[in-house]
Amino acid sequence: MSYDVVVIGTGPGGYVAAIKAAQLGLKVAVIEKRKTYGGTCLNVGCIPSKALLHASEVYEEAGHSFDALGVEVSKPKLNLEKMLAHKDNTVKANVTGVEFLFKKNKITAFTGTGKVVAQGKVSVTSEDGKVEELTTKNIIIATGSDVAGIPGVEVAFDEKIIVSSTGALSFDKVPESMIVVGGGVIGLELGSVWSRLGTKVTVVEYLDKVLGAMDGDVSKHFQRMMEKQGLAFKLGAKVTGVEKAGKGAKVTYSPVKGGDAEVLEADVVLVATGRRPYTDGLGLQEAGVALDERGRVAINDHWQTNVAGIYAIGDVVKGPMLAHKAEDEGVAVAELIAGQAGHVNFDVIPSVVYTQPEVASVGKTEEELKAAGVEYKVGKFPFTANGRARAMQHTDGFVKILADKATDKVLGAHILGYNAGEMIHELTVLMEFGGSSEDLARTCHAHPTMSEAVRESAMATSGKPIHM
Ligand code: NAI
């Protein structure tokens, strides 16, 4: 059987590329080694974590916020088994959704390990060792990423006591204590889930701030909010050892600025120190496909590798490891293969941390603008001054917009607040169209909405807000 496109990997990058290519009239096959489609994101990443984030937020609200709204309920009782079942059902609905879309778009799906044999040739090895060879005009590598671990530190993940994000989605009882190594996105999302369910969480982070690349202002406020919620932080602390100890585990860390090593013990340890591109067993070396200095598949601006007809997208190539970045690359590469003009604007890729409150951002941070010597102005508006936020008791946080001092063009936007991940998109569209803060400030917004704070922030950038 011969195809126009064979996609290896069915995460958000791979499955979207396959669907788009099929929609454009190409004959498409996908290869997936998991039993279900959707990759890390749908099976053990974005989707299950969001199910737990939501459920644990509702549990927390029922225990703490209902009363003030005049809703009197008895103390909420956690049924962890049911909460985990909700997570599993959410995953199931999503992965079967992808299966349905493959069928609908007449995409042939193979279960097994895909390997690039040569230009135009891919093999699939199924679980029972049977090997099948496919011929194709184009290959898209979309194999994603895997847990990176801690460079130079042996971490024996058992996914019960010493866990990666995968194990942290499935504890069968609420741990009394948890150490999170890495104050990045995974550490704070999953740390806050278990903290809300009753775990004492301590985050140990190498940098002197959480959420490394986020705007410094946002990161500082966010950390304070997390501390109020009960998470403890050890910043500027380099973890040098993670080992089992007694019934739990211990983490050894040294202050980055120097000083004696310290040891923390807890029931469980979540190691969330980043992810690495996943190319194991893909046969890239034999096929002559080059990697870059960080082990990612090397590509040009059109996602082409050094071998003609072989493309790569998503976490396995350069750029932020985000599902939606992979999806956009999937669409673009399918369009390019079909002879159209596929493109991704890497300057306008939103990013969201799904804690409560959420942190959402798009474009440049203040630190980046300063470093680039760009003259900018800042407009900020707090949710405490927003009527809808007050009505919903979600007044934590603010909107911050950064615009070019001379032209008023919006260069970056950062929202810390309830549902920030939904609100960021009007700024994303604005930036995609090269809009100014005055454009946004003059756009009518429905009242009462939290999005009015976004508009007021734009008013603050280009002039004065009304409600402050
Ligand atoms: P991350 O890169 O966000 O954070 C890892 C943190 O670990 C960094 O702050 C780093 O300084 C720290 N670290 C590294 N070595 C250390 C050591 N020896 N001691 C102490 N701290 C150390 O990585 P994370 O959270 O594992 O996430 C992996 C990827 O998945 C990221 O690229 C992230 O963007 C993506 N992701 C995105 C989500 C979202 O968009 N909501 C959700 C979950 C993951």
Structure write-up:
By secondary structure, the chain is α/β, with parallel strands linked by helices. The protein folds into three domains: 2-146 and 276-337, 3-Layer(bba) Sandwich (FAD/NAD(P)-binding domain); 162-273, FAD/NAD(P)-binding domain; 351-462, Enolase-like, domain 1, CATH 3.30.390. It contains 13 helices and 22 strands. It has helices at 12-23, 39-44, 46-64, 80-104, 185-196, 216-228, 284-287, 323-337, 366-371, 387-391, 420-432, 437-441, 451-462, and strands at 2-8, 28-32, 108-111, 113-118, 121-125, 131-141, 145-147, 162-163, 177-181, 200-204, 232-234, 237-245, 248-255, 262-266, 268-271, 275-277, 310-312, 351-353, 358-363, 376-382, 398-404, 410-417. The strands form five sheets. Strands 1, 2, 3, 4, 5, 6 and 17 form a seven-stranded mixed beta sheet that branches. The protein has a five-stranded parallel beta sheet with strand order 8-15-9-10-11, with helices on one face. Strands 18-19-22-21-20 form a five-stranded antiparallel beta sheet, sandwiched between helices. Helix 3 (46-64) runs antiparallel to helix 4 (80-104). The longest helix is centred in the N-terminal third of the chain and has 25 residues, at 80-104. The radius of gyration is 23 Å and the shape is globular. The termini are far apart. The structure holds 1,4-dihydronicotinamide adenine dinucleotide. The site of 1,4-dihydronicotinamide adenine dinucleotide (NAI) has 26 residues, from helix 5, strand 12 and strand 18. The site of 1,4-dihydronicotinamide adenine dinucleotide has 26 residues, from helix 5, strand 12 and strand 18. Its cofactor is FAD. It holds the Pfam family Pyr_redox_2. It comes from Paenochrobactrum glaciei. Belongs to the class-I pyridine nucleotide-disulfide oxidoreductase family. Its EC number is 1.8.1.4.
